[in-house]
Specification:
The chain is an alpha/beta fold. Strands 7-8-9-10-11-12-13 form a seven-stranded parallel beta sheet. Strands 1-4-5 form a three-stranded antiparallel beta sheet. A three-stranded antiparallel beta sheet has the order 6-15-14, with helices on one face. The protein is globular.
């Protein structure tokens, strides 16, 4: 006998998260619960408003239909619903595991090794961002990622300059994420100015779906460009290959919840490596249900790059889990363990 259900869990930010697309104060998530033969499995549908391709009014209706079909042994085509596809993939992995939260055993889950992560600094005023940078440095982060593109560009340049006056690239690795904020006509000039500060990379300098313009940027850029939003909406290996071969980026950033799950993430990694692009994995601001799956999957690759998995402490009402940030590493060591909401 199969039984499936879900409940909506609106995540509340401790502090507003500023991006070039607006300020996030809450974020919707739906926790999926699958039951079969006395076992349970959990997954998470996690949307980024205005970014996820399945950020649509009828998502709950599609999720209900997906779960009803699962109960009957049918499989929905979720090609156009990547966040639901991710949730169902994780929930079924969870259901088949001896422990519903142990999906990919590794040194990480055995509490022997952490995952190096970057410290994320949201957009804000110049003073706010400077204070947040200092906080991340004090916490022990070696790699810091700054969201840029919402405040005055000269102010952002001054922020980067102030960091570099105090810390060399050997001491602090800086990544910036423009979320497509730059106009194509002045993007290269901005990249040249940014490159003066020994940055590791910039994510998505111009908006996605401008392949030829992005290709020209990647060919002429003075610093590495990592595609992020560009990956969203691509649903086949053939499309992956076409996009990467056309643009020839230096790197890609993969968010499993936005690209259709962990299997799709594995395909992105294989395809990127064929085109000599390096990669790292980032959460899409999931609760700890989704983050747990992404972190365990990421740990199986043993990448030497800092990953974007430090988002579990953003919320006032996250689901309690063993995930814990210590210095610049994510660990699976919190002795409080999992404390599930009453709805589960």
């Amino acid at each position: 006998m199969r039984k499936a259900s879900f409940f909506k869990h609106t995540l509340i930010f401790k502090s507003p998260g500023g991006t070039s697309r607006g300020v996030l104060r809450t974020k919707p998530a739906w926790i999926v619960n699958l039951e079969e033969d006395g076992k349970v499995g959990f997954g998470e549908v996690s949307l980024l408003p205005k970014l996820s391709i399945d950020d649509r009014p009828n998502i709950e209706e599609v999720l209900k239909n997906t779960l009803l079909n699962w109960e009957k042994g049918r499989i929905n085509s979720l090609k156009d619903w990547p966040s639901i596809r991710f949730a169902m993939e994780v929930a079924e992995l969870s259901l088949r595991s001896s422990d519903p939260f142990l999906l990919f055993p590794s040194e990480f889950t055995q509490k022997e090794k952490g995952i190096e992560i970057n410290g994320l600094v949201w957009m804000g005023t110049k003073a706010e961002m400077k204070a947040r940078i200092r906080e991340k440095l004090d916490q022990g982060f070696h790699c810091i990622k700054l969201k840029i593109g919402a405040i005055n560009f000269d102010d952002e340049i001054e922020l980067l300059q102030s960091i570099r006056e105090e810390y060399s690239a050997d001491e602090i690795e800086l990544r910036v994420d423009a979320n497509g904020a730059f106009a194509p006509e002045d993007a290269l000039e901005k990249l040249k100015r940014l490159s003066e500060f020994d940055l590791h990379s910039i994510e998505q300098p111009i908006r996605q779906h401008q392949w030829e313009k992005m290709a020209a940027l990647c060919e002429n850029t003075p610093l590495d460009i990592a595609l992020d939003e560009e990956l969203i909406g691509i649903t086949s290996v053939a499309e992956m290959e076409q996009m990467l071969e056309t643009i020839q980026p230096q790197a890609i950033v993969i968010k499993p919840g936005l690209v259709g799950g962990l299997q799709m993430t594995a395909e992105w990694i294989k395809t990127a490596e064929k085109t000599d692009a390096y990669w790292w994995i980032t959460s899409a601001l999931e609760s700890n249900i989704g983050l747990n799956a992404i972190a365990q999957f990421t740990a199986t690759y043993q990448s030497k790059l800092p990953q974007g998995l430090g988002t579990g402490q953003l919320y006032t009402n996250n689901i309690s889990s063993p995930l814990s940030i210590q210095g610049q590493h994510l660990h699976y060591v919190n002795e409080s363990g999992w404390k599930l909401p009453a709805e589960l």
